[in-house]
Amino acid sequence: MSDRERADAVLEHVAVLAFLYYPGIEVDDPSYSLAEDIDWCLARLGDVSNLERERMRALFARAITDPTATREELFTALVKLDGVLDVDRHE
């Protein structure tokens, strides 16, 4: 899987989870686990350092629960993590 494909897969996973998430889901569905959803996204990252994995874990949590406020930060983090695009030359 190329860097771009991996970044796209992670973004797709986060987008689906953000679409399904709503405040109070844990009450309505006691089997729901944000941690499991985050693990599902982390599995698509591949081989990254533990430090990056923990940083992305926190970012995924914010992106799932508040996607509007976090989507640009998530995209930028994935780009920097995988080197998919040169951010300085992105138009």
Outline the structure in words.
The chain is built from 5 helices and no strands. Residues 85-91 have low confidence and may be disordered. With 91 residues, it is mainly α. It has one domain. It comes from Microbacterium aurantiacum. This is CdiI immunity protein domain-containing protein.
Concise overview:
The protein has 91 residues and is mostly helical.
Assign a percent range to the helix content.
55-70%
Tally of DSSP β-strands: 0
Written as H for each helix and E for each strand, in order along the chain, the element string is: HHHHH
End-to-end Cα distance: 25 Å
State the shape. globular
Query: Which spans of ≥5 residues are poorly predicted at pLDDT below 50?
Result: 85-91
- Major β-sheet profile: none
What's the pLDDT, averaged over the residues? Answer: 87
How much of the sequence is in beta strands? Answer: under 5%
Total tally of structural domains: 1
- Rg over CA atoms, rounded to whole Å, is 13 Å
- Classification by helices and strands: mainly alpha
Question: Counting H and I runs of at least 4 residues, what is the number of helices?
Answer: 5
Protein name: CdiI immunity protein domain-containing protein
Organism: Microbacterium aurantiacum
Q: Could you list some keywords that capture this structure?
A:
91 residues, mainly alpha, 5 helices, 69% helix, globular
Secondary-structure topology with pairs:
Layout: H1 3-20, H2 25-28, H3 34-42, H4 50-65, H5 67-82
Protein name: CdiI immunity protein domain-containing protein
Organism: Microbacterium aurantiacum
